[in-house]
Design a protein that fits this description.
It is a single chain. The chain is of the alpha/beta class and 348 residues long. Helix content is 45%, strand content 19%. The strands form 3 sheets. The chain has a 7-stranded mixed β-sheet, covered by helices on one side. A 3-stranded antiparallel β-sheet has the order 8-9-10, with no helix packed on it. Strand 2, helix 3 and strand 3 form a beta-alpha-beta unit.
Length: 348
């Protein structure tokens, strides 16, 4: 697989889809990249640097499970050039970790953060999950406060979702596990926003909180509509006008790459699709949706349509207007997807 990934990096640079831009961020994510050997990471980064121009200040992140983090691996990642970690803590409660079938324990979750700091990783993120069945509000507060007390610079929090055709969905259907409670999730999200604000974190995207200067530059590029290149099975790429995604099948992916062909499907975005993506992503951010940008990039009629469509949300205090920017309130963030959908353009 590493050979195929390296070869796709080279092929992607040669393709017309990839733009010759300076790479500002690199993200090792999806699957379990923390299982990669030091040599594999070094080889991949070497191939990227040989194919693209990398910014000297590039943010290079690696996703890691708590049970994979050791002093030796942290030193290896440092040596390889990783300068940011994204750690999947999920919870400090044993019952939640068991419910989510996580491999790590509470003690490992605590220790890995301390180890990361000792190894010199001052820029890192930790993930938490809320809204799990049986998670009381007080227990949720303890989870959040634990990360705050550990002085974690970036915290990402997600509501538990039950995806179709998954083992979890089947277990809930068979009454072997409790279903989620959306009212409980809403309450815990509102509490989360209050606690994080009190602790001095910036709520810069619906699921993400950062201390000043510690926003995720990589994830922010998605929300800002910047171009990106995805490498590997199921990876997505975007160049401003088109989106493409690689096949999910590992064997098919590897065989195609061996034949010097990247196996992907591609979609050219219409104006409406591009506008709708901007509406969806911008409303999730602290900066919000910029009406001047809508007018300049799309049309005056689209700006007027959106302005007419927000009156109800302004009246209900679900949205505020800050000059030319539309920003969701804390209450409005509970309905972000629905509000965005209501403002979507139709047609081509």
């Amino acid at each position: 697989m590493i050979y195929a990934l390296k070869k796709e990096i080279i092929l992607s640079h040669e393709s017309s889809f990839a733009k010759d831009e300076i790479i500002e961020t690199i993200y090792f994510g999806g699957g379990t990249p923390s299982l990669l050997d030091k040599r594999d990471i070094e080889d991949l980064l070497f191939t990227i640097k040989n194919s693209y121009t990398i910014s000297p200040s590039a943010e290079i992140t690696l996703e890691a499970n708590p049970d994979d983090i050791t002093v030796e691996k942290l030193n290896h990642w440092n040596d390889a050039g990783i300068n940011r970690l994204s750690i999947g803590i999920q919870s400090f409660k044993e019952k939640d970790l068991q419910w989510m079938n996580r491999a790590h324990k509470r003690q490992q979750a605590l220790e890995c953060i301390l180890l990361a700091k000792e190894a010199g990783f001052n820029n890192f993120s930790a993930d938490l999950i809320y809204g799990t069945p049986g998670l009381a509000d007080e227990e949720w507060k303890q989870n959040v406060q634990q990360l705050i007390q550990l002085n974690v610079p970036h915290i990402a929090c997600y509501a538990l979702t039950v995806e179709p055709n998954t083992a979890l969905k089947k277990m809930i259907f068979l009454k072997k596990k409790r279903d989620i409670n959306t009212d409980q999730q809403a309450t815990q999200f509102l509490l989360l926003m209050h606690w994080m604000k009190e602790a001095g974190y910036e709520h810069y995207e619906i699921s993400n909180f950062a201390k000043p200067g510690f926003r995720s530059r990589h994830n922010s590029s998605y929300w800002q509509g910047k171009s990106y290149i995805g490498i590997g099975p199921s990876a997505h790429s975007y160049n401003g006008t088109a989106r493409k995604w690689n096949v999910a099948n590992n064997a098919l992916y590897i065989q195609s790459i061996k034949n010097n062909s990247i196996p992907f499907e591609e979609e050219i975005l219409t104006n409406s699709q591009s506008l709708n993506e901007y509406i969806m992503t911008s409303l999730r951010t602290a900066e919000g949706l910029n009406l001047n940008f809508v007018e300049e990039k799309f049309s005056t009629s689209e700006r007027n349509r959106i302005e007419n469509g927000i009156k109800n949300y302004l009246d209900k205090s679900l949205m505020t207007r800050k000059q030319q920017n539309l920003v969701l309130t804390d209450e409005g963030k509970l309905f972000a997807d629905g509000i965005a959908s209501d403002l979507f353009a139709t047609g081509t």
